[in-house]
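Protocol step 4 of 5: obtain the predicted structure for the target chain.
Materials: sequence only (see below). No template structures provided, no constraints applied. The aim of this step is simply to have a reference model before the mutagenesis design in step 5. Sequence pasted as it appears in the construct record:
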Amino acid sequence: MGFFINWGVVPLFLIPALAIAFYAKHVSGGWLLPWINLKPVWWFVLLFVLPWIGYLVLVVNLLVHRNTPGAITGRRASASRS
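Step 4 output (structure tokens):
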């Protein structure tokens, strides 16, 4: 029994994982600052290496923090424009 990587499918997981990790880095202000409970590096690992768990964690965290001011966008409630 050997190990086979389907290289045609790798971009389907790599591109969204990179996009979400870079968004998390941008919103949190760095690679070592958490965005909705996880550091951007761990978002990449979860979404690329363990996508079936990573996307579930992402959806749950987005639902849990949907009413928390600035948790998803990185903006503070006091910085909102009127």
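Step 4 remarks: Helices lie at 10-28, 40-49, 51-64. The mean pLDDT is 84.
Proceed to step 5.
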